[in-house]
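Issue 218. Parser rejects a valid record. Input:
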Amino acid sequence: MRIAFASDHAAVALKALLVAHAEALGHTVVDLGPDSEARVDYPDFGYKLARAIAAGEAERGVALCGSGIGISIAVNREPACRCALVGEPLSAMLARQHNDANVLAMGARLIGPDLAKACLEAFLATPFEGGRHQHRVDKLARKD
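Output the parser choked on:
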């Protein structure tokens, strides 16, 4: 699977760890930055990730900032994205299974590396269940 990663300055270290973990799991990674801990604005990188998902440049995305909240809001402004902010693997699994989330958000200041890797694994391994959930997901793409 092709996965795009983006973060702000607070999550650069976690992003590097998760990029390496995704590659070790056999996935292709697109790192959209940033490359250093110099202060940046999370919306810029959230929008960059959202555009990559919308354009089909990646099947899934991982959005990281200090809390995960700001960057998830930015990603979710793109109608093609369904970004779920999670803090444990069950939520990551349910976001995929029931909501067909295509972007995972986590807060680098709130989650440890092992738990973040477990969330990523659950997110990448879980298929969308469809069925009774499909019409709800379809409603998420509508603006009315």
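Fixed in the parser; the record now loads. The radius of gyration is 14 Å.
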